[in-house]
Amino acid sequence: MNIQFAPTDLPLSRRLQTASVLQWVFSFLGLAPSCIVLFFVLMFTRFWLISVLYACWWFIDWETPSKGGNRVHFLSNLRVWDYMRDYFPVKLVKTADLDPRQNYILGFHPHGILVAGAFTNFCTYATGFRKLFPGLDSFLLMLPLWFRAPFFRDYIMMAGLIPSDKESASYLLRRQGGGNAVVIAVGGAPEALDAHPGAFTILLANKKGFIKLAMEHGAHLVPVFSFGENELFDQVENPRGTWIRLIQDKLQSIMGISLPLFHARGIFQYSYGIMPYRKPINTVVGRPIRVEKNEKPTVEELDALHQLYTEELSQLFEEHKGKYGVPEDQHLSFV
Hints:
This protein is an alpha/beta fold.
């Protein structure tokens, strides 16, 4: 395999962009297990008191993730996220105003491999979410599994991440006065297995939990499509029905996380590695769908709102795909 090395005369800004994305990739793929190992290793050293004190804090703070987390605005506004934004680059596109007196569920599509667009747009302030939608605070849902990792749980909560369970989302959506935008990668971990370049497969046909949640709290629904999300990594071909996909689906059902076999570029070379490609991400926030509060919706009411949401997402994609290099004959595939 021919290896294409990065030029040695790259400007400092490019190197800082690469460094910022490297720390983000490590945070997603390696920081959680590293924190778990550190917690137990400290128990057998003279620094054992750190783990003991943290365990006490963990017990006291156990319910914080399900009660809005503990966001630190200063950290979300660090310069490092500007470099990460510019690496791809990432852009947040507004199509309509969102009334800050309301609460919202933003359905993010597609999941991609590492949800880079969702993190950059809704966990950092680098793309201007607070300026585009004044009065709204965004919270990105993440697998509850990661909130069981010592130290790591505190790190992700500071970025505005909360567990992807009903209790955590409901806590924010029932807040009086509005101003909360709960961001859900609707396809979840299974959709990462379909995140191939040029693919527009959306896991939505049987995803109605977020629709019911919106109706129970009267939270307006907002479809969000992130153009370029699936272009950041190559993935080993895994069509449905193949042995590799059957293994991936089985492991996902057991562990709760998907294991896409992905690769892209390296740090100092462009041929192979787990650093994402420098491909633009354009995250388009659609028009809000007004939802009336209905604590006990019927199946028919759920299906009707789900169909409306699907149509709005499809329309959002069709209206903007031409601006971002998607062929005219390409449409979303709902499964």
